[in-house]
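Quick one, T. Sequence first:
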Amino acid sequence: MKMKPLTLIVALIFQLISLNVFSQKHSHLNSLLNKNSEFIFPQTPDKISKVLRAKAVFYEDANDEKYAKWLTKSGLELYCSIGKNNVISEMFFDIPDDKFVIAEGLPFGLAINKTTLQESKVKFSKYGAKVEKLNDDSMYSGGSKLIFKKGEHYSTLLFDNKNILKSLGITKELIDPAAN
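Structure tokens:
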């Protein structure tokens, strides 16, 4: 079967676009993770900006609490609250809704848009991981939340209704769902 040149060109362009849209991206967090692939705390906004090669955006909430966020070239977004002396002791990772990329190289060897709930249940069972269904009014309606504690930090993994990881939070305390 012989392809016409225009058909071939359109097919190649479509493949290049789809490779970019559905590509896997590495988060480049290596120097912020320890040998066990755990996020190292405490951190500072300057160090995170340098590692990510992304400028921090600082903002405050209605209670004058300070926050920072970084949007990396890979599409991964990191955000956190800023403590005294610009110290960061918690971190959140997600992908904005308008981007679909697989972000690998996250803490615990996780990958947003790739890691499954089942894989995570097995991986974190040794830390007493608990799974809860998310409410219909939550961001990932019909999805699940997996929570475990390792050391001083709680990790909260949010999965969509297809059981694919969408968000990761590492905090000193569990966040009360009523606070949102």
